[in-house]
Every structure is written in structure tokens, then in C-alpha cells.
Amino acid sequence: MNTLSVLFIALGLSMDCLAVAIASGFAIRRLRIRHAFAIASAFGGFQAVMPALGWLGGSTLTGVIAPFDHWVVFGLLGFIGVKMIHGAFRIRALEETRDPLKPAILLTLAVATSIDALAVGLSLSLLDTPILGPVLYIGIVAFGLSFAGVYIGNYLGRTFESKLEALGGAILIGIGLRILIQHLSGGA
Questions:
Q1: Gyration radius from the chain CA atoms
Q2: pLDDT tens-digit profile of 169-180?
Q3: CA–CA distance, 47 with 137 (Å, rounded to integer)
Q4: CA torsion 77→80→81→85, rounded to 10°?
Q5: How far apart are alpha carbons 110 and 12 in whole angstroms?
Q6: What total of structural domains would you count in the chain?
Q7: Which of 56, 45, 181, 174 is CA-nearest to residue 121?
Q8: What is the pTM for the complete model shown?
Q9: 3-state helix, strand, coil in the chain (%, to 5)
Q10: For the chain, give me the number of helices (H) and strands (E)?
Q11: What is the pLDDT of residues 5-27, one digit of tens each?
């Protein structure tokens, strides 16, 4: 998988983090850099760990899934993308009544925003893609966008939250579709 595809996957996965970071920033009354750093570290860290776990799990199943791996990749990325687009249109009252900086809430948010990355890691293992580069890209992009998102949310509120998550879902669906078409057309 080329670097541009990995970057788009990182951006797609990070849109969920960005949306929740914006909502978190909206909920924090007296924002400090340490608040943004804590949220971004949790989101970026989990976004990096989950694909590695998915990749490790998928590596053990490669021989069994190889004949139809392109369909599995397309299905996983398509499902994640549709789920993100659907989630973008749900009303979220997430951080308005809860403090996103409380450890239990922050951990829950970090895990919830990174579950999709687990499936992406599985997809990368099926594509025989080395995991270190994607993990670094995904973690760094998620950290950067989450850090910025906390500040954006603090200043602009939740105006764009659902649009960003929908964009992330559309990106993942597009990548899954491109992989499927490329494989069916005989391209590697």
C-alpha cells in the first residue's frame, strides 16, 4: 500500500477523533495546553495501538482468508465508513454534561474512537502491508488533529462536528472501493 493511501486512511480514521475532540473542547471551560495534550495523547495513542492489534490478529488468519481478502477489506472499510457517516448525523450530547478530562471518560472516548482502527489493522494485514509505517501515520495524524480539534471546539463549538465524521467515513469507503476495484481489475 502506498504512502498516500496510508495517509488517507489515517485522515479517515482521525475524523472521528477530531469530531470528539471538537466536542471535548466545547465542553472544557478553561482550556489549557495540558488538556489538549491529554486528549490528543489518548486519542493518538489508541489510534496507533488498535491497528497494530488488528494487524497481529489478521496475520494469523492470512492463509485462511487469502482467496477472498479483497472482499473482506472492502467489507470492513465500507462498514466502518457507513458507520461513521451514520454516526455523523446522530445527535451527540456527549461532553455537554460530562468532563472529557476525567480518566474514565477520556479512556472510554479514546477506545470508542479507535475501534475502527482495529478493523483497519486487520485489513492491512490481509493486504500484506507492513504495520510500522501505518501505525506511525495513524497515531501522529490522530494526535495532531485531536490536539487542534480541542482548540477548534473550544472556540467554534460543534458547528462542523458531524460534517467531519461524515467526510472520514466517505474517505474510508472510497479507499475500500479503490482496493476492491484494483484487485478485481488485476492490479496489485
A1: 16
A2: 677 677 778 777
A3: 10
A4: 170
A5: 16
A6: 1
A7: 56
A8: 0.70
A9: 80, 0, 20
A10: 6, 0
A11: 899 999 988 988 898 888 788 87
| All three cell numbers of 59 | 496475520
Angle at 117 between CA 108 and CA 14, to 5 degrees: 80
Instruction: Specify whether the CB–CB gap between 113 and 20 falls below 8 A.
Output: yes
Rounded to whole angstroms, how far apart are CA atoms 12 and 14?
Answer: 5
Q: Nearest-CA neighbor of 13 among 50, 39, 59?
A: 50
For residue 99, report the phi and psi dihedrals to the nearest 5 degrees: -90, 110
Q: Residue type at 144? A: G
d(CA 129, CA 151): 34
* Matching residue, cell 471538537: 22
C-alpha cell, 100? 472529557
- The residue with cell 488498535 is 50
Find the domain containing 102 and state its range. 3-184
Task: List all residues 6 or more positions away from 64 whose beta carbon is below 8 Å from its beta carbon.
Answer: none
Q: What angle do CA 156, 162, 81 make, to 5 degrees?
A: 145
